Amino acid sequence: MAKADKNLSVYGVVQEALPNTLFRVKLDGRDDIVLAYLAGKMRMNRIRVLIGDKVELELDPYGGRARISRRL
Fold it and tell me: What is the CATH classification number for the domain harbouring 48?
């Protein structure tokens, strides 16, 4: 049985930087603020994310943390 890859991609703006590469991100078009972490490739290539950056997120279908997959 194949694993279903149903992650929803959305965009948002970084509101706050927290320790251990966690961020509070406000989603575009919604009033939601989610807790997000950096994807492995972004950590590996040392891509910096600052407050005010627009980012692409992959939301967890179960309501956990989101993953920042790209900085725009």
Answer: 2.40.50.140
> Which pLDDT score is estimated for 61?
84
Whether the CB-CB separation of 70 and 24 falls below 8 Å is answered with no
Q: What is the pLDDT of residues 8-62, one digit of tens each?
A: 899 999 999 999 999 999 999 988 899 999 999 999 999 999 999 999 999 988 8
Find the helix or strand (DSSP H, E) in which 42 lies. Answer: helix 40-44
Structural domain total, the chain: 1
CB-based contact 55:24 (threshold 8 Å):
no
Give the integer Cα–Cα distance in Å for 3 and 62: 15
Residue 44 φ then ψ, to 5°: -65, -40
* C-alpha distances in Å from residue 63, one per residue of 17, 27, 42, 50: 20, 14, 22, 24
